[in-house]
Amino acid sequence: MDIKLFRSLLLEKKAALVEEEAAGKEAAQVVELDQTSVGRVSRMDAMQGQAMAIAANQRRQIELQKIAVALTRIKQGEYGYCLECDEEIAEARLKLDPATSLCIDCASKKEMI
Ligand SMILES: [Zn+2]
Question: How many whole angstroms from 82 Cα to the centroid of ligand 1?
Answer without folding.
Answer: 5
